[in-house]
Amino acid sequence: EWIERWTETGDEDIQPAHAYILVYDICCFASFEYIKAVHQLIVAKRPPGSGKVPILIVGNKRDLQRCRVAPRHNVAALVKRSWKCGYIECSAKYNWHILLLFKELLKTTGCLASRGAHASACLQGGLRTNRCIIL
């Protein structure tokens, strides 16, 4: 329902961003289909002149590995090869790979380009005039 409303409204609902993080539940195929639709909308309705903004796909609930609906390597290959996006799995419940997720986010946006710079300074905009905002 939300996807249908989003497609009807036009480009004004896609906010400019330095990067997008799309999170799905590895135990729920419907959540993957949902982020697939959101990814397609972001790519199709990207404002003109916005350039190629990185999109990071995140599989959450890695702690429930035995309940997953698709093998990790299949999903990672699809996301990396077909969608041209980064892919990572994490567990918010156990705080597993959460820091890695944000490190990858900072890498894709170019915040970690300066060696020796602390990531939090980049995130707060200390090294750039145009600040990153994570919502």
The CATH class, by name, is Alpha Beta
Pairing-aware structural class of the strands and helices? alpha/beta
Give the C-alpha Rg: 16 Å
Strand content: 5-15%
As for the CATH topology, it is Rossmann fold
Separation of termini? Answer: 23 Å
TL;DR?
With 135 residues, the chain is of the alpha/beta class.
Written overview of the protein:
- By secondary structure, the protein is an alpha/beta fold.
- The protein has a single domain, classed as Rossmann fold (3-Layer(aba) Sandwich).
- The chain has five helices and three strands, in the order αβαβαβαα.
- It has a three-stranded parallel β-sheet, sandwiched between helices.
- Helix 2 links the parallel strand 1 (20-25) and strand 2 (55-60).
- Keywords: Nucleotide-binding.
- This is Small monomeric GTPase.
- It holds the Pfam family Ras.
- One of its GO terms (molecular function) is GTP binding.
Helix-strand layout with pairing:
Elements: H1 2-9, E1 20-25, H2 29-44, E2 55-60, H3 72-82, E3 86-89, H4 98-109, H5 119-123
Parallel strand pairs: 1-2, 2-3
Protein name: Small monomeric GTPase
GO molecular function: GTP binding; GTPase activity
Pfam families: Ras
Keywords:
single chain; 135 residues; alpha/beta; Rossmann fold; 3-stranded parallel sheet; 5 helices; 3 strands; globular; P-loop_NTPase; nucleotide-binding; GTP binding; Small monomeric GTPase
